[in-house]
Amino acid sequence: MKTTFLPLMLILALIFTGCEDPTYKTAAYDNTYNYDYTLLAWSQESIHAIESDHSVLVLGVPYTTINAQLVKKGSEPDIVTSGVTLTYEPIANSDGTINTTSANKTNFWSYITALFNVTKAVDTGLADKNFSTSMSYNSTTGRWEARGIPLVARDDTNSTAYYPTFKVTATLNGSTIAHTQVVTAVSDEQGCVNCHQALGFRNDAGINDTGKTTLQIQKLGILELHDARHAEESLVLSSQSAPVACASCHSSVALGMEGVTQLRSKDPLARALHGSHASDRVTLDGSSLAASTDDSACTACHASAKDTHDKRDSMHANAQISCQNCHGALQESIKIPKCANCHQSGTRHTSAFSSGTTLRAIAIADTIFNNDTNFSLAKGHENMQCNACHGTSHTIGVSNRADDTFQSRFWQGEAGTLFDCLACHTTMPLNLKGPHGMHGFGQGWMDDDAHGETAEDNINACKVCHGSDLRGSILSRTFEERALSKRTYAKGQMVGCYDCHGQEW
Fold first, then answer.
1. Which residue has the higher pLDDT, 216 or 346?
2. Nearest 10 degrees: CA dihedral of 476, 477, 479, 480?
3. Burial grade of 69 (CB within 10 A; 0-12, 13-18, 19 or more)
4. pLDDT tens, 381-409?
5. pLDDT, position 483
6. How many Å apart are CA 10 and CA 6, to the nearest integer?
7. Helix or strand or coil: residue 436?
8. Which helix (H) or strand (E) element contains residue 168?
9. What are phi and psi of 354, to 5 degrees?
């Protein structure tokens, strides 16, 4: 697969043949479109945390980002980087809710100038994106992006709605060439009040809090504690003239803040929050967040404590993988592991750590699962983004929400990681050049001579997924029921060489 621009002859051909714009359906997999392109989209975060009030203290603002890659199908598919238009628009999700505007749902735009020294029209985000417009290609990240969509957790009936869904469409000269849909989860359930409601607000600065809501008073209490730890600052008093944005001093990965000039000289926001809370209590029994070995240390603050689910992929949930299994105990520097810290030679470890805070070493044989950058920016098979096939971090594989699995069902007919080569290839590749060094799937691979030749010449490559004894491993499970070589495999059954071969070799 190579990156390319659309050739002139193809553009002219589409002009004169006049491709029809297929009627969009939200149903499951439907191959009647016969698209010559595959469009894959994902949300930058599995869930974006925002505030329900921006008048005192602001940790997160409406800033949802959608990413996408467009592939021209072929025996050697091409990644399309120009000559087309990618747009996004809100659609109803499976719950029947739709979110087409944030107007009259938040006071964000009432305070945006005081917070970030910019002025934006209602429904326009910090990066100048709104609810329905075009995406831009970013040559640095190698993907199409719509950064900073100002979503809030309220639908158009002003009811709570945590899973807004968008349709993403690729067009060429006004004709649709591909579409998909993506969940852009957003939540205002940050758990600060879980502890700070009890801690209260002493009001040592003598602020007039008459008429303030319970939430506003709780946020004043947080600023009061901040000032107590940092005597050189007086954020409680500052908040009376303008709300305080944490990202004005602490850089935030979740808030890119394009077009916003702020002093951000302090520790990154995540580092500052994790470090300052590592020794704090979960409950009044005295146990600390850092001592917790289950998700409670994280859900005490993060949105999953309530109704929205950040970690909603069943692959890791079914294996009972906790936050600490990947990121370690709560501390100032949270670990960001690589896939290969757990996925090694057909074995799936349940922790990324060999001991303590030491990440498990990655052997050369396991570098097919390794990447030197953060998963959200990582590229794999022929410069495809890892997110494009696997989904967003924390929604990898089969999510417990049907809307999260639309894309894999649409392009390959079943939920889970996008593994079917024919989603992008017009013919099944019969080699070991697939993602992670995998071969093609289906009966075609079983019947082709390449199957036997590969096993004879490169048996160690087979063992990575089919196990050291070639009898199957967690990596050779079927996502759905499947018939191969007159055998029927149940969903989740491991495929091994000796399922068909009667003797060992």
1. 216
2. 120
3. buried
4. 888 999 999 988 888 877 778 888 899 98
5. 83
6. 7
7. helix
8. strand 165-172
9. -80, -35
**211 Rama class: left (phi>0) / alpha (psi -120 to 50) / beta:** left
Q: What element of type H or E holds 223?
A: helix 214-229
What average pLDDT score do residues 181-201 get? 83
Where exactly does CATH 2.60.40.10 map onto the chain? 2-190+396-412
Stated as kind and residue range, the H or E segment containing 323 is: helix 323-327
Encoded amino acid at 417, one letter? T
Contact 274, 330 (CB under 8 A): yes
Which residue's entry shows tokens 């002139």?
A: 8
Residue 368 has a pLDDT of: 65
| Assigned token pair, 425 | 């290839």
| Token code pair at residue 86 | 């990618």
Phi-psi region of 498 (alpha: psi -120 to 50; beta: other; left: phi over 0): alpha
DSSP strand pairing (143-149 vs 244-245)? unpaired
HSE of 460, CA atoms in CB hemisphere, 13 A: 3
Per DSSP, 111 falls in state H
Which of 315 and 108 is assigned the larger pLDDT?
108
d(CA 410, CA 397) in angstroms, rounded, equals 14
The arrangement of secondary structure in 2-190+396-412, i.e. its CATH architecture, is Sandwich (2.60)
Q: Is 41 helix (H, G, I), strand (E, B) or coil?
A: strand
Compute, in degrees rounded to 10, the torsion defined by CA atoms 62, 40, 88, 146: 40
Look at strands 48-49 and 136-138 and give their pairing: unpaired
Is residue 281 very low, low, confident or very high in pLDDT (cuts 50, 70, 90)? low
Q: How far apart are CA 392 and CA 386, in angstroms?
A: 9
Residue 26 pLDDT class (50, 70, 90 cuts)? very low
Buried b (16+ CB within 10 A) or exposed e, 53-64: bbbbbbbbbbbb
Q: What is the DSSP string of 249-288?
A: TS--TT---TT------SS-HHHHHHHHHTTSBSSTT--B
* HSE-CB of 480 using CA atoms within 13 angstroms: 13
Q: List the structure tokens of 291.
A: 């001592």
The single-letter DSSP state of residue 294 is S
Please give the structure tokens belonging to residue 45. Answer: 């975060």
How does pLDDT run across 81-113, given as a tens digit for each residue?
Answer: 999 999 999 999 998 999 999 999 999 999 999
249 CB-contact burial (10 Å; exposed 0-12 / middle 13-18 / buried 19+): middle
Number of helices and strands (H, E) in the chain? 14, 20
* Residue 494 φ then ψ, to 5°: -80, 135
